Write the structure tokens for this entry.
Amino acid sequence: MNAFVVIYLLWCAAQGRHYRERIVVPLVILSIPLAVGIHTVTAFLYNGMAARPYWNSAILAPRFLASALCSGPAVLLILFQVLRRVSPFEIKDDAIHKIAELMAYAMGFNLFLFGAEIFKEYYSDTHHLVHYQYLFFGLHGETSPIAIHAWTSLVFSVIAFLIFLVPATRRNLITMNLGALLIYFSVYIEKGIALIIPGYTPDTLGQIYHYVPSVTEIRVAIGVFGTGFLLYTLLVRLAVGILFNPARKVALDPATAH
């Protein structure tokens, strides 16, 4: 839906006419609940598995949404700065600062939900706590191979939250970009290693298998990111070529037609 809206807007711009609001506005409004629904359904696929108590949490869907509202804008902050340096696009600092401010709220909410989950598990102290123990400390005297990733994700999240919470640091480009990178990598670890692996460890029979990503998995991950950046680059080049085409400006301005 997002691709259709953008392509339609670019097509109207290339034709030199205004887009129809009765087409664009309803689709933009509809895309908001659809975006929420995508993350919610993804979370439901996890917490609907009764045999995996690590995922049986009612706040898993809000955690998905909160982390997405952190990592997505973090990527946008970097891309906006690159875009205004290499293209005629004018992106004001006020817009970037507003995104950074909203990220502070989202990251604070994300950390709150994570803390609520930790409190529930450790305070109740049931046998389901074994998954979090494996995630952060390991089991049976053995250090968890993913503990370093879990603690790194948590530390990155806290540091990034503090950076975006303070107006002076979130308005400074250096610290803001550092915070954006920390948020992205912390969420990537949280929703990758820290979410998936403890759900299978220990397994339903109580056995423990130490997971190590295979070469194939690494290649697939690189391919996914590469495809995404390739599509984004192509669409940006298309948009810049249409919106800042000198011939289009002449055609739209009758005063300069001669």
